[in-house]
Amino acid sequence: MAPFVRASPARRRPYLSTLMESPPTEAQDWEAPDHRNRQHEMRGPMTLPPGLGAFNHALYQSTRVRLEPGHRVELVENGAIFDEIVEAIRQATESVHILVFIWRPSEPSERIIEALCERARAGVACRVIVDPVGSEEVSGEHDFDPMVEWRLREGGVEVHYFRPLSGRWLGRLFGRTHHKLVLIDGKVGFTGGFGIWKSWQGQGDSPEEWRDTNVRVEGPAVRDMQIAFARSWQECGGALLPESCFPEPSPGFEHDTCAGFVESIGASGISEAERMLRMVFAEARERLWIANAYFTPPKAILEQLLEKRKQGVDVRVLAAGPVHDWRIVRASQRATYERMLKGGVRMWEYQPSMMHSKTVLVDDWLTVVGSTNLDALSLHRMREGSLVVADRRLAAKLAQCWARDLTHSKEVTLASGGRTNPWRRFARRVTQLLAVDR
């Protein structure tokens, strides 16, 4: 073996001079800590072969999820979600499982408590998980409103907290569950952006009533939603669920919609949520419309959107407007506008209330509805879940929602709020700190 010899400065210079003489371009330097690492990161903007088969191949090797046939999926908007959930609970015969980030005293809470207790008295196993950050008592020291919890327990409902807050300061941000899941008999599932609170009442047309989009689903994906609940249930101290909670899906739905549920548990590196979104975005050829409550994604996703626009795709973003629950997040969101607008992406802000939806519409057949926000917290620190659906009928309904929402939105241009400023740049840097180990 030849002895180790340290390279001389002259021998090292060609490599170093190459780096020094090739400064990063504006695109490379945009929030990039070191453009030289690009060759070691997940491949940048890509285009998948057309069709469901090719998309499924990409999604499966990225997230281990395929879109399977045999589903019935319906959009459920705004306060109608509570009507649907209460009706489904009252029809339960085996089990009702709820996993939510926010559950606070309110009229929707009263309705759901009543329905759960009635079913529990009838012998149905009712199990509830709440996240203490979202469901923490508004004025007090309890992880969950004691009266709500007491009424549920007295009514025969088993209640657990997901990672109690006692002594966990960093835990208030990291490792929470942001899921919104309601599962009936292992056959019917609900997910989306809803919480059990007054903000999700109404029609999303006033500051007190948030705009949100959810889905009701039957089919094989419900089993994966049930698994997401079961994993959290075990961690919270619950027993293993019986086999009856995982029934075989009923065959032969009329529309035979293909769907899959992608759960993301938060991790260093590329999370399942980001993998899913990047594959969905890569499939777009004509239309890529994103509605999201906290639109401040990592650099790689922003660059993918710009590349899609270069490819001729109609890229649009509908973001939260003046009614917003986090000032710094809205500023961070607005820090992305200037580059997006210069790249041809069209941006809107919803005006009457908080835009809380988390949806994606690709071309005329592919949609995403779930709890996943496009921010570092959601993509890298939280447990999330989204339903990916291949169905032209559902895509058409989501397009109708877009048309209606745009009548209540203001388009942002460079001349009207689209320019960045020091406050926005600072906010963007702060919010991206949550993804520093990405």
UniProtKB/TrEMBL annotation:
InterPro entries: PLD-like_dom, PLipase_D/transphosphatidylase. Coiled coil: none annotated. Gene3D superfamilies: Endonuclease Chain A (3.30.870.10). Residues 351-378 form the PLD phosphodiesterase domain. It comes from Archangium gephyra. This is Cardiolipin synthase. Pfam families: PLDc_2.
